[in-house]
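WARN retry 2 of 3 for item q-0093 after timeout on previous attempt; input resubmitted unchanged.
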Amino acid sequence: MIQGKIIDNISNKYSVKIDVNIYTCDARGKFKKEKLKPVVGDNVNVSIVDENKKTGIIEEILPRKNYIKRPKLANLDQLIFVISSKMPKPDLLMLDKQLVFAEILKIKPIILINKIDLDENTVKEIEKQYKKTNYKIIKTCAKTKEGIDELKEILKNKISAFSGNSGVGKSTLLNNLFKESKTLEGSISLKNKKGKNTTTNICLYELEENTFIADTPGFSSFEITETEAENLAQFFVEFKEYIKYCEFVGCSHIKEQNCGIKKALEENKISQERYKRYIKIYEELKDKEEHKW
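OK item q-0093 returned
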């Protein structure tokens, strides 16, 4: 057997990269019995069926570092969350849900602000709100290619996925990185001007040796289900150090007195805007918990 990485999956046929070659592989029936299915990003052991035709069979899925259910992806090193300064307006509530999602799965999040030429004040405001998080923020202008070299450097030797609302410029960024049209950019907006996602399957593109970018049909709407409301604050990274100063165990950090997070808020150690969005997400989670039956 030989080890490779799944880079594509269409109709139960898996493209597995082994050294410099791509093999088309089936998966052993045992995976179905074990209720385990290989996904893009998996490292697998393969037995070669026909070297000339480059075909094989996936015999074993190696242990995963992480796993995302929708879209199905494994072993991501980082998630690049793309927002634009304008057109469309940045959805920071969605961004905060995405950041919580990354924290839960222990995948490194990076904030990418695109279209920085359209609204410099908004770019500065976003940077200000996220300063205390210490998340890496990259600023790009996909059309002029500003920031593309910095982005390339961050992607090196990693498996990364891009996420962001339609219209924020993910396709243009990817095409700039690869210097060719990998993502059918033209068909996104020219047909109906509304901007729809043209990617229908998940695959890994190799930018350079050992550097992969996942192109996906988008992540689920980030209605966070991986945590309960009472644990939410620990996934707001700049809140964590203040939780220990709360008087009450299970403090929601909203209505209670003697709350470490609310005190930090009063002392401007936490962004007011981030805190307001924390409350919104907390209330959404609480509402779901109360109505799940």
